[in-house]
Design a protein that fits this description.
Elements: H1 4-17, E1 22-31, E2 41-45, E3 50-52, H2 58-69, E4 78-82, H3 86-91, E5 99-107, H4 112-130, E6 134-140, E7 146-151, E8 156-160, E9 171-176, E10 181-185, H5 189-200, E11 204-208, H6 212-216, E12 224-226, H7 230-237, E13 243-247, H8 252-262, E14 269-272, H9 276-287, H10 293-296, E15 299-300, H11 312-336
Parallel strand pairs: 10-11, 10-13, 11-12, 13-14, 14-15
Antiparallel strand pairs: 1-2, 1-5, 2-3, 4-5, 6-7, 6-9, 8-9
Helix pairs in contact: 1-4, 5-11, 7-8
Length: 337
Amino acid sequence: MQNPDHQVLDQVTAWVEAGEMCWLCTVVKTWGSSPRPIGSLFCCNTKGLIAGSLSGGCVEEDLLEKLQSGDLAQTTPEVLVYGKSQEESDRFGLPCGGQLHIIIEPFPQQDKKTNSNRLSTLKHLVDRLEQRLCVERKLNISSGEFTCEDSNRFRHLELRGDIDAETDNRFMVQTHGPRYQLFLIGAGQVSIYVAQMALALDYHVVVCDPRESMIEQWPVEDAQIVKLMPDDAVKKYADDNFSAIIALTHDPRIDDMGLMEALKTKAFFIGAMGSKRTSEKRRGRLLQLDLTVAEIERLHAPVGLSIGSKTPAEIAISILAQLTSLRSELVAEQQCN
């Protein structure tokens, strides 16, 4: 499943390729409480078709009306602020004191040469996201020209220059990246709870289990099911910096097979369920599978924060809490770089 950025950019690319007038809108500043974070994307065309979200409803309706009427951003980008007054905040359902600053980027239908160049750049951007890689886009807010560069930085937005001033030195630099992915080895009860909670936290969830009987009983519809052996599945689906891999079968024949490959991947987190004694035995087995000590030290086992968890739901909470903490640290590190 695509992340929200990917969905919006894919749709804009399709409209531009079809020669349809459309707009790409980005939340670039917020003040006080805001319904959507900085970097959120929304797109629409002259037919009223939309993708993505800026606020959750009312702002999008008003913005679409302004764009379709020709009052806003017909040839070059414009900056629009919602929530300048409390009356306006109330009208659009923004939280108390909330403001949204939005850059609206038009793709005029008649501008075929410019859109041809933009289309090539957009296709490269979407292609990077499809490969679960990062890409940085730099927009000249005054002219509407933009470029893309491959990047290793995940989801970041930076404004350069005074975006409210009428100058040529105004830029938006935004890095887009893949959705975080949670790859689960095993389709048992703990995996069910982990998958449900992870989906609520906006992970793309992949569940791998070679046992047909377990897959047949899997109840979580929004998770991707993979019936390959776990070592093959890990190499195919989870070898990137935005994947976490967790072994949850309690069957060493299956778990160890997946971990043997997982510990060689770029995954930002690798974990396995089990007691301390079970985990030490697992490390001993992995040493016999031609893994290095450094590779085995990447393993978080027992997986999850130590909160005294016993039930499947409690174990799932401990695992997602550990992942949430680690993700926050990773984001903080990238913001400092």
